[in-house]
# Entry
Amino acid sequence: MRRKQNKKNENWLRYFLGGLVALSSLPVIYFLMIWYGFFGPMPDTTELSEIRNYQASVIYSADGERIGSYFLQNRTEVSLNEVNPVLIDALLAIEDVRFYQHSGIDYRALARVFVRTLLLGQDAGGGSTISQQLAKNLFPRQNNSFLYIVADKVREMIIARRLENIYSKDEILQLYLNRVSFGEEIYGIDTASRRFFSKPPSALQLHEAATLTGMLRATSWYNPYRNPEPSLTRRNVVIRQMEKYGMIDNDIATSAMDEPISTQYNRISASDGPAPYFREHLRAEVVRILNNEPALTGEKYNLYTDGLTIHTTLDSRVQEAAENAVSTQLRTLQSRFQAQQRDPIFSEKDDPSILRAWRQTDHYNQLIEDGFSEEEIEEILYTPVQNRIFTWDGYREKELSPYEVQKHYLSFLNAGFMALNPETGNVLAWVGGINHRHFKYDHVKSRRQSGSAFKPFVYAAALESGMEPCDYQRNVLSVYTDYEEWTPRNTGDEYGGRFSLQASLAQSINTISVNLAMETGISEIQHLAAGLGIRSRIPPEPSIALGTAEISLLEMASAYTAFLNEGAPSTPHIVTAIYNAEDEMIYDFSDETHSDGEPVISPETAAAMVQMLSKAVDEGTGRHLRQTFGIRHALAGKTGTTQNFSDGWFLGMTPDLVFGAWVGGSVPRVRFSDNMGYASQTALPVAGYFLNNLNTYPDLESQKTNFYPHQTETSFDMACDDYLDDRYRDRLRDFLSGRSSDDPREVNEEKEESRNVIQRVRRFFSRD
# Structure
């Protein structure tokens, strides 16, 4: 019996000891599971020594302003010596005051957390060192269960110790400051400093540095822009900690805490900030360069991750002048446009233009991707929901269906504007619309009928064919029998008499422009336009003389550069250089020539066109720039209005600048119905505001009084009367035929070709 009892006791002891061994081995097993990566990645020293952050590529204007970035993570890296030391002190004071004493783990801080947080229930902070926080940032936690939380703490300690063995303390600080998140999808101290205070971290003041380091505990709650009161409280805690540890004295601490929370918030997203349409166009161009053109270093680069620095031709001052000009004019125009509307532009349901716009939205595409049926999508389209919509008076909260939202935005007049240097082709300003967030379509690149802004190409082709600025043409109605009895008419239906070519261009007389095109030859005009860089299709019809061809503002402005460049057009150019993250130049476009070299038109013709277009501003359709806007410097240009007032254009030139404005609706039926729709009332004022805005920048070179000699000196005789009465033989011919000057004459190509040959021979021997 006793032997049995002893046996039983031995078994119990064996089980007890076995259980004790098993229980004591659990932490070892748990630790080994952590060590071998069961609870998350456990990087070795090789991986940790090759840490590389994704870096945003940064865009700079020609005058040195940072205008945007491209990124997967919105981060730009800085070295520790580019950060104000006061920020380092603030960071250490609030996050890890013994950073330079420990080896990655602060055991005193852990003991404090254990006693005060776990035993006393007080808030004693997290106890994680900066090295541990960096480890957590590099290898984020994957699960919130208790076992994982404990494992993550241990894992971060191990990684922190490894980091301390690989990197110096300053290197760890630099990695941390470039890696840490400040909310709003921004990473690193450089991006945060520029976002909240519009300055680099080297320029931060004490109270600003304390504000940013205070954010790290809760980036959303302590966001100084959105939650200034909690941010102020947290900032002052940081400052008091700095005083406590002897980093600053009481006077400095008190002075810093007296400062209000005052941000200079600067959010530059794809749709915010300067030049969003330009930046979107630049994105595609840089990707093309990186994919197709070899870098000077021989390496391949990624726009979104490799921290490139992109230097552009854009001038931030010229861009600001352009953006303000567009906003000023379009705000006024929209108000007048809405006041004029009596009948709805779009139908209340199933309007094709609205449905087409709806199918191009992210909302519609997401519904398709999520598997919604067409019936379900249609129900969503007409169901009102709360929306925040753009108006010129600010954003408004309204209950609208997606259909009504699209109708709202399609009812806006829009605009495009660009400016470039005629000699280099450098693009200085690019405004693709009134608001990139809601109007993504870039009207610098959109093709619209160009109206009378195309006429200078017709007149240039005529001069190249042997005509002269002081040749005269009759202002008579003509019916073009080979083109469906087409009868172009003048604005105001005024006919009779003869106009010099330079006067007919200045006054934009349609009858003469079309007749000139027929005499010169449609194919000659097409060839000249193509030579000037217009790639859009120019149809073989006489109506192109009135600008029926659909051409982009980008093409029109670049073609006009030929008039200032002795006949040679410049190709638009937007990038000057690209540097990698190590500040090595990898692409250099600064010395490239962007003129096509060989003149497309003769220097004499180009100079004559500058004089003729100056006349259009001084006396013709562009005279409002002188009369209304008081512009007195050298200026040339041409308005253009298309049929039914759908498009308004103004293309202008100063000695060192070519610029163009387009105004119209996203769809042609969004237009004025009366004289308010003329380009002199829509597009020309954009140019007027722009030129006057430029004068507010004293550091920009002032506009010159006269064009350069090579831009206006020509062998053509430009001194002649604008208008002459009809010749006796013309009046006699009209009398005998029983036709008045208001009656259209018939024109067909066979007769016109015969007449053209006779006129050219006559011009060869004498001028009328």
Q: What stands out?
A: The longest strand covers residues 657-665.
